[in-house]
Amino acid sequence: MAFKHVFNHPEVEQLELQGYRVISGLLDIYSPLLAMSLADFTLLVREDSHRAYPIETRLFHKLSTKHRLAYAEAVEGLQHLSPEQQAIREYYFRARLLQDYISGMTDLYAYDEYRRLMAGGIIKLRNNYQQFQPVGCLDFCKDGQYLFTIANHLCRNFRLLINSE
């Protein structure tokens, strides 16, 4: 009954689509951090800067200290694993770093962050351009579906990264 009369209402569907666009856009914006090699990202975390990656450094600085510390602590616990397993787990924790940061945003903050970083709708992501259209107001509720969407987006990017190597 609720799905038929509430969740399928055009206004609700519009808000969900806008929320999806904002979350997808933020994940795309922060995806250069996922594209970095393990060695380069480790240097960025350790030094809080990486001269060869100025955009990634700025994106990293936008992440909350709480999430950055949680990532560092999780990666510290990987020392007993083989180098191959360390790389796999580190990438998982890096994806979680972004997922946790974005999913912890309020609706208004996510929308404002998306608009600020989109700089008029066009953003350069390392060697390619992607066009985004700004969305209207954002007032969607966060629930398991949005976390599922974030996880799917990260997994899709991970598969693309693995297949491109």
Automatic annotation (TrEMBL):
Q: In the Enzyme Commission scheme, what number(s) does this protein have?
A: 3.1.5.1
Entry keyword Hydrolase:
yes
Alphabetical list of Gene3D superfamilies matching this protein:
eoxyguanosinetriphosphate triphosphohydrolase domain-like
Q: Where are the transmembrane segments?
A: none
**Ranges in a coiled coil:** none
Q: What GO molecular function terms would the record report? A: dGTPase activity
Judged by the first EC level, this protein's enzyme class is hydrolase
Source taxon at top rank: Bacteria
Q: Has UniProt tagged this entry with the keyword Hydrolase?
A: yes
Pfam families in alphabetical order: HD_assoc
Print the keywords alphabetically: Hydrolase
Cite the InterPro entries for this sequence: dGTP_triphosphohydrolase_C, PHydrolase_assoc_dom
Protein name per Swiss-Prot or TrEMBL: Deoxyguanosinetriphosphate triphosphohydrolase
Q: Which gene encodes it?
A: dgt_1
Domain named Phosphohydrolase-associated: residues: 81-116
